[in-house]
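queue> holo job accepted (magnesium ion)
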Amino acid sequence: MSENAARRLSRMFHRISIAIAAEKDHLSDLDGAIGDADHGITMALGFQAVNGELAKLDLDHMLPSDVFTVAATAFLDAVGASTGPLYATAFRRAAQALKQEESLSPAGQAAIVEAITAGIKERGKGQRGDKTMLDAWIPATEAAVGARARAAGLSEMWDGILDAAEAGANSTRSMVATRGRAARLGERSLGHMDPGAASAVIILRAMRDALIEHGVDE
Ligand SMILES: [Mg+2]
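queue> job finished
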């Protein structure tokens, strides 16, 4: 029997954690330009905590939604402020979206991206153009929905998601922040990529790499 979906998701979170840790200094530098220079550290701590909690689970007897529920609580416990509640709500929404899923179908994977974005939007009350992580997550979701609508294969869907997220993150360079600490800088935030958008790309790339590895659901 192939690896179950909960195990695949756990592996996905492991991969996100490694990728974020590798870019920790870069993310904090980006945050230093427009904020308090802690984004890399907080994100690394958050995903490290998620891995710690997932390692305690009997994944063979768990559903994909359970993994996201545990991830939400672990992330929030480790990262109280700013991004903590955003990704906690995002992962809770993903858990709800996967309620009936035992496998991780392409539709289920698209639903994860959609649900994460919906959760961040709901919690942060933000939108596109605010120079936040949503400038990566919203285009990523649009790409996922578009790929599902034309019944694209799994790799094609994820490549589209990643291209859209990267373009979105790059577009934050020419935006003036209106939310969060960076908003105090006003025009001075111009020219810098938003650190939350940058980490969103790292997360999505790790998700793609983990989820298309065994493209059995295609
Ligand atoms: Mg910060």
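queue> The pocket of magnesium ion is lined by residues 31, 35-36, 38-39, 82 (CB under 6 Å).
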